[in-house]
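== Sequence entry ==
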Amino acid sequence: MPDPISWEYAWPYILAAFVGGYLFGAIPFGLVLTRLAGLGDLRKIGSGNIGATNVLRTGRKDLAALTLLLDSGKGAIAALVAAKWGPDAMLAAGFAAVLGHNFPVWLRFKGGKGVATTLGTLLAVAWEVGLASCGTWLLVAALFRISSLAALIALAASPLFAWLIYGDLQLVQFTGLLALLAWVRHHANIRRLLKGEEPRIGRKKE
């Protein structure tokens, strides 16, 4: 992680990083791409989510892959741009990008669940933790074919990865906060998982 900034008052830079990260994260790429492709309002398809998993339910794998790339890029770019102002600004921007995706002002604060944006943020802030979390997602998704389950397990494991790899309490707290936010956003998925009703990857939700 970069060295802290040396200015006497760092909070204006951290605030600027947070606001910039939020506004960038609030761009609903999945919604924009599906509309440009003539597929209508993504919020009226499948789960109604604006993320890559729901884009996949339209049958357009190319758009789903592009949405995944752009949504993850939001968190990564926000964090990396703010990194010049130090680690606190970097973490603030990355977290704000996830908040922006989840609660975008342009969509009356009704957004996605932030998994891709969170993983992108982790890759930028601590790439080893991000890579381990992405690997966990891929493993669970391959075994069970359930995107939400893969996300829940991968993000829940990220604080453990942060502790084992870095031993940095701030990073553990940061990843833990992101994981908690993701679990709260997945409350409906958790209920369906417990009932055995959660749709599998690639299958349209009834």
Summary: The two ends are 44 Å apart (CA to CA). The mean pLDDT is 92.
